[in-house]
Amino acid sequence: MNDRFQVDVALGDRSYPIYIGAGVMAQGELLARHISGGQVAVFSNETVAPLYLDRLLQALGRDYQIDVFTMPDGEEHKNLDSYASAMDFLLEHRHSRSTTLIALGGGVVGDLTGFVAATFQRGVDFIQVPTTLLAQVDSSVGGKTAVNHPRGKNMIGAFYQPRCVLADTTVFDTLPDREYRAGLAEVVKYGIIVDADFFRWLDDSAESCLARRPDAVAQAVRRSCELKAAVVSADERESGLRAVLNFGHTFGHAIETLTGYTRYLHGEAVAMGMVMASDLSARQGLLSWAEAHEIRQMLASFALPVIPPPLGAQAMIQAMGADKKVLNGKLRLILAEAIGRVRVTEEVDMSALRHTLMAGERLCHG
Prior knowledge:
With 366 residues, the protein is an alpha/beta fold. The chain has 14 helices and 11 strands.
């Protein structure tokens, strides 16, 4: 395939390729080279399976014992109950340590499948076949696997790398507008945190990206994966640099937790979180107000929410304090110094943070 791209995540003996392009899901040889045993368990959900399961099964062929686990759709199902059901399924179908799990779906399916793979019989292989833009550019790459807890998002999980990622850009043909736009939030994030030129390209290409023009979408996915792969290769387990990938996420995760994971898609919460992180960055004198406004306008141009819901400043601070990025009891945030450059800091001005949170509430109330 001339239009297929490969991005490599360099992690020594855990390195793996990301295949990007139209139709890569149907390339049976790509799957086969990363399946070592005779058993395959495909994990999907009730929305994705009717659309793409047959295509994946046809690509796999008849050389494997293939079992399919289908879970309900939605972030609220990324929990220990679904994890237990998945474990029951694998044991009931007598899967062994040589099985390969395949995640066919968005971030919820990918995160759950990866966590199951990390812990079933102390670790089995898995492959990511992400079917949303957000999953292709973010959650399927880097080996973060987890389920949610009522008190916090992604609190139970493991770092566990897939054998490969197949990012088939034809899946966007069936992706609802809201899901597609939510993925664009994570794409914009890469421009803010490490690549100002990419941010400018997104600004110039906003119309093409929103129209899902194949060349623009492929470039957005490819560059996002290149940037994330570089960060993950340098800091697999988030001991330093990788934390920059969480720009806006501490705010966004608090919004998701306080709304029960049902009101907003992850990318929508992150979009609001990045606006709030930019606002706080400006209040602390790190980022110009002009660039904070530019970030907000970029997200708004992709029809993403930029005004947070009225959840209460104190409730937000408490929820943010339960985030995984809290270190030794101190809130740790990723703040922007300029478009294309951020810093990880525990120097958070709590008065400025409250003003940021209250500013969001005032905008929400009009």
